[in-house]
Write a structure and sequence with these properties.
Elements (H helix, E strand, L loop, with lengths): L1 E5 L3 H13 L3 E5 L2 H10 L4 E4 L2 E2 L2 E2 H10 L6 E5 L4 H10 L3 E4 L4 H15 L6 E3 L3 E4 L4 E4 L2 E3 L3 H13 L6 H8 L10 H13 L4 E4 L3 E4 L1 H4 L4
Parallel strand pairs: 1-2, 1-3, 3-6, 6-7
Antiparallel strand pairs: 4-5, 8-9, 9-10, 10-11, 12-13
Organism: Acidovorax bellezanensis
Main location: cytoplasm
Subcellular location: Cytoplasm
Length: 225
């Protein structure tokens, strides 16, 4: 899943990016409101971590613009502003969650998963697709009761399809979920990861929609109780 980190401290932003990528996320960093706007215009993100004190303005202004434009991207404010008045302002402007600095990375990861779970309409991070099971919070997959080892990009692809909840994602959208702006990769990489996932979890796990892209297979979409 693709996360936009809007944070002007290079050290903090790099630490968040490194930590989230260890948990299977793909991240890009914007150090200003202007850069965040350019990133949003040029790519798809599943959620945003938003600092407030940015060099070219207040993060609340950017959040207000997004909400006024009916952009429903899940947003988690991550700020040193810890007064109740600041939190109220954040929620009234449209943030989905608010975490103060200093923070614990594990808590940040759990809060992100909760945001993404609500955005996709899921009640739990534990998903049963019949032949295979997924723990979204722990990035763990099993098939027929046996653990399945997935490479980081394979997990990113699978989680993007789960998050889409049956919608078709184009190869370009999936590419955004797998790679950041600073990575130059071949045009066939999405197809390669699709092939690997099918080999590990079964051909039915991903359905190709000719001319449009990919979606979670119809059998995989039927979640068992």
């Amino acid at each position: 899943m693709h996360i936009l980190i809007v944070e002007d401290s290079a050290l903090v932003a790099s630490g968040i990016k490194t930590g989230l990528e260890l948990h299977g996320f793909t991240c890009d960093i914007a150090a200003s409101l202007a850069e965040a706007g350019r990133h949003m215009a040029g790519s798809h993100f599943d959620a945003c971590i938003l600092d407030l004190g940015l060099p070219d303005g207040d993060g609340l202004r950017l959040l207000g613009q997004w909400r006024a434009a009916a952009l429903h991207l899940p947003v988690l404010i991550l700020s040193a502003r810890d007064r109740i008045e600041d939190k109220v302002a954040g929620f009234q402007t449209g943030t989905d969650d608010y975490l103060t600095k200093p923070f614990d990375l594990t808590e940040l990861v759990l809060r992100l998963h909760a945001l993404l779970r609500r955005a996709s309409g899921r009640a739990t991070d534990l998903l049963d697709f019949g032949s295979f099971q997924i723990n979204m919070a722990c990035a763990q997959v099993s098939r027929l009761g046996q653990p399945v080892e997935l490479a980081r990009r394979e997990w990113a692809l699978l989680s993007a399809l789960v998050q889409a909840n049956g919608r078709v994602l184009s190869a370009a959208q999936l590419h955004d979920s797998l790679y950041g702006f600073d990575q130059d990769v071949g045009s066939n990489t999405v197809n390669v990861h699709v092939h690997h996932l099918r080999r590990k979890l079964g051909q039915e796990v991903i359905e190709t929609v000719r001319g449009l892209g990919f979606r979670l297979g119809a059998q995989a979409q039927t979640r068992q109780p």
